[in-house]
Structures are given as structure tokens and as C-alpha cells.
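Chapter review. Work through the record for DNA topoisomerase before attempting the end-of-chapter questions.
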Amino acid sequence: MTRVVILAEKPSQAKAYADAFQIKEKTKTYIELKPDSTFPEGATITWGIGHLVELKEPHDYKPEWKKWKLDQLPIVPDQFYEKVASGKWEQFKAVKQLFQKADVIINGADVDREGSNIFYSILRLTGVKGKPVKRLWINSLEKDEVRKGFNQLQTNEKDLLLFDEAKARQISDWMVGINASRLFTVLLQKKGFSGYLSIGRVQSPTVYLIYQRQKEIENFVSEPFYQIEGLFKAEKGSYKGLAKIKEKDKAKVQALMDQHELKEKEDIQGTVQSVDKKTKHQKSPKLHSLSTLQSVANKRWKYSPSQVLKTMQKLYEKRLVTYPRTDCNYITDSEFSYLVKNLGRYQEAMNVSFTPGSTRPSKRYVDSSKVQEHYAIIPTKTVPTQNKINGLSREEKNIYSEIMLNTLAMFHEDYVYEETTIMTDVKGLAFKSTGRTEVKRGWKELFPQPTKSKQEKDALLPEVKNGEEVGARVHIKESMTQPPKPYTEGQLINMMKTCGKLIDNEEDVEILKEVEGLGTEATRSGIIETIKAQKYIEVKKNVVYVTEKGITLCEAIEGTLLSSPAMTAKWESYLKKIGNGQGSKQTFIKQTNQFIYKLIEETPASIEKVQVRDTGESNKKKYNTPIAKCPACPTGSIVDRYKFYGCSAYKEGCKVSFPKKLAGKTLTQNMIKTLCEKKQTKVLKGFKGKKPFSTALKLDQEYKIKFDFEKKA
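C-alpha cells for DNA topoisomerase:
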């Protein structure tokens, strides 16, 4: 009798496998299947609980490694060992007993490097050796796909390479995390820092990229620029146009006005010189990978990337969508053929109806050469009943309908619009107006129509003829340059994928393109959750800010390879080579070791320049500590009173107080200190009125803060 034991990654996955067969017995730790054509002698499904096994902690090797001390570094064991994760001993014992009795073991964990890691780490720790191992490789948990997968099991060659890749990543992350976190924390604590820093190979450069954007915004000085705008009145309506000039120097724009004898707001005549119409076609978006879905869901419903992944996992386990952790936007002919077959039923389920533009595969969506382990996220063959859809949570409904409509859009017609360019001549000066008219909504009719912005409404052009005389008024239009926008949480995923755009070195850009930036499709949302949990960033109204603790981290790692997305990308690139059999785990770990020695040698000098700030982790009272001597009374100090700044001698009658916010800008303790000591600040940006503006601040005779527009930057 051949005993077959299948290891699933978690109980829900084991249940989905068991549902495809007949169950003989269920226990707390395994499910027994009845014999059938796939398993003539039956089979047993057991499971991990995610990571049943983890790397040992430093103190598991040497008790003295428990303390965070510089003279203990570097902490690098000669050999890395695993242990059973806390609270999971009972399940591990059950898996071990089943493996010992098995004749064939099947790895049914997730089909990626972490799935390989989970399976082989458990197998190694059980001590079971020399038994044949097969690999289940599927993209859907539907019953027929599960049965098909078990009937077409793969060898474990690719799996063993992925295990090497995963172990190299896990060990290197352990080495960098343990050594760098202790090194930077202890050195900063010597300078008075009261918290702890957690430093990681991917999380630290991610925080650093967000910090760079925040610094760009803070240091941005808004400047005016000038254009000539024309307002035109034609027979069938009004429109606007711009002359081909854009200058910071208003005098140059005025000179062009004078050259053409144009006066502001004077009623004159213009002539339509040309009307150019082009019909443009827009194809439906590509099929979703995890990151494109995370982006759309954040834009539309403000869902965080990890919320999207969790929701996707639930939909996957409900057999409604295909494998979630995919970075691919293509499917093969095999998936396309079942989508075509189900087209009518999918439309019914989504309550939409359209005649397909085409039911033939297009290379934009269907390309086997672009599909490796996983294809794009699409609905499964299982078309849900209205009852099943109604039983989904709001998040599940939203995400499911986005996947479904995105897939249906591939069959719909193109979105067609007409782009019109009007050139209007006023006293020899040409003004250009562009606008678009919708011709056919096509695939866009499947999606909710966004509300039109003011610019889009302005871009609707009236019908005009060549040579038509139009009423004209021209004026000099003043606009302000705008700072870059802060990241939303959904944009972090794209920022991590395309951080190559933020790098100057050509070769580094190529490497980042090849591996798609920081982290992998499966890990990015987890990294964002980690840096939120570490309090390096906070998300307010979907906008991401770096905290004081995050700024301390970034100033500490500035200039080191830990702030470099290129380094992380090179690591990721080499890890991929290990997974493809072209790189070695030993080489990777050896290079990580050299990197840590270099870090220990160079960091003490670089930490000297870091200004230690209060990260809110200290127990010292942040509030009521003096910021500056009160400018009005001899005894008081200005202190932070939580909602405002005020004088500590208020009980003695000093009424001086300053707001925490002024015209939409937060006033920092440093700004208040400068105002108290110097009575004025330098020009600051980021104030908000009808338009954003920059100004200096000054204290008047009554110790009130006033704007000082005369001070030049």
C-alpha cells in the first residue's frame, strides 16, 4: 500500500483540496480522503499554519547574544538552524508523524518561493529523508483544477531551487535585520535616542524613498509663471486657448503682447485658422496583476494594499478568482477559451449586457510566452449565483466586480473619442485650444463614470469653422509651480515597483526594471504594513507621511547602502538567479556577511552627523518642555500645550500664545523658537489660500504672528 501525504500551507487551503475529493475522516490535524481514480489507495491532507517553522533567534545560539551590545556584533552563526514557531508544536508533531509513515509526500503549499520555503523547512526539521517528493502546481482552487493538478503532479527540481532562493533571502534578511537594527539603535542611544530602530533590507529603502519625496515637497518653493490666454466667442459657443509662451519673467510675456499690439481685456476680433480633428481609439486596460488591482482599489475605495491582498485571498479560497500573488498581466489560450465560453453567464452575473467586439485572443491580453508560474488575475470557471454574490462582504463584492469587469472589458469594443485642435489667430499671434469629444464609450460603459473635473469641462470645444471670425479677449495668466504630490498608500506599491525612475545610474535602472524594484508582488503589501507597524510612516486620509521616528531612521541610513533601492534590487536580481539555477545560496550569504562587516566598520562615523529627535517613544514629557524664552515676559518659556503653544507664566498673567497651524501649514517647534528669538523666519512654503503660497513670518508688537510677504527667499 502506498501512503500519500499532502502538505497544504494552511487549513483553508487543505479544506479546498479536500472538497475536490470524497472525505473519509476529518481530525484536528489532518483530513483522510477516500480512494478514487487520482489516489487509488486514498491520501492524507495535513497543513502548516503559515510558517510552522522559523529561524532560531540569536539567543538560541548563544545566551550572551540576547543583549544589544556593540561588542557582540556581528552576530553570524556558523550554521543557521530552525525551530518550531511558538504555539504551533502540536500541529508540527502531527505533520512529523504523518511524514514518517508516508511513502510519497506532496508539496501543496502556495506556488511561490515562500511556499517552497514553508514545505522544505518543515520537512527538514522533521528529519524525514529519502522519500519521493512531488509538487502540486495550480492557479485556481476550483474542484476540477485541483483534481487536474493532482493528476499532473510535477517533479520537485524547480521547487528545490526556489527553496534555495527563499532560504538565501530569509537568512540574509535575518543577518541584516539583527545586526543593522542593533548597530544603529545602540549608536543612536549613545547620542540620547530613546527608542529602538528595526532595520531591514527592503523596508529601510522603502521608508527612505517616501522620506525623499517628503523632503522634495518641504523644500519646494512655489514660483509664478506667465502665459497669454485668449477667451473666444464663436457662433456656437465659447472656448479658451493659450499662446506658445511660458515664462517666469512677466516682462518677456508683456513684450510679446506689445509686439502684437495686444492690450489686456480689450474686445477685439480673432480668426479660426485651422480645425484639426483626429479619431483616437483606446483599448481596455490590461488584465490585473496583484499590484494593478491594489492601485485601482486604493484609488477607487481607499483600500490599503494589504486589505486588497487579504480580500483576494478570501475570494481565491471561495474559488471565485485565480491565484492572487501574481505579477503577470497575461493569460494563455487555455484560460481565454473558458472565458469566451462563460462570457454570457459572466455578463448576467454582473448585470451588464453588450455584444462582444471580438471573441478572438489579442496579444495585448493573451500571450503564453509572457506567462511563467502564474497568469493574470481573472474570474474562475465557477460563475457565482446572485445569492453567492449577495453573501460576499462589501470589500469582496467590490474587488470581485473589478476583476470581473476588467476581464469582460477585454471582449468589449474600444473607447473612441475625437481629439480637436483649434488654432485661432489674434493680430498675428496664434492661440491653441485642444478638447475631446466622446464618440463611443465602448468598454468604459462597464465602469462607473468618474465626475468630470473643471479642466475636462473646460476642454469641451464648440463647433467652429475654418476662417470663422470670433470675438476675442486676451490677458496675461499667472500660475504657480506646484510641488510634487505626497504618495497615497496605493501609490506606494507602484513606487516600490518603479523606484528605478528615481535613480540616475543607467545600469541600476535596468536591474530595477528586470526585477521590478523593491520586494516582490507577494511581499510588497506586507512591507508597507511592517513600516506602518514600526511607526516609520503614518497614513492619514490615504496620504502617507514619514514620522519623526522615520526621519531619524532615514538620517541614520543616509549615504549607506541601506538607503539604496538599487542595492535591494541587485539582491533581488541575484535571488532570482538562484531560483533559476544560475546563482548560489552560499555566495549570496557570503556577500551579505561582507556587507554587514562593512556596515559595522563605517556606521559609527556616519551616525555622528545625525540629529537625534524625539520620536514620541521616550517617557519624557513631550509637552510642557521649554521651546524658547517668552518674548513678552521675563520669567516664562514658550511650551507645547498640545493644541497650541503658550507661555508657562500664564498663571502670572502672560497671555502670549501661538497656533499650531496657520493657513493650512503646521508650525513646528523650530519655527516658534526662531520667531521668539529672531522675531522673524525665513520664507516658508506650503501655506494654503485660494492658491498655495510662500511667505516669511514675523512677530508684531503685540506678539501676534503676521505674514511678511516683503522678505525675499
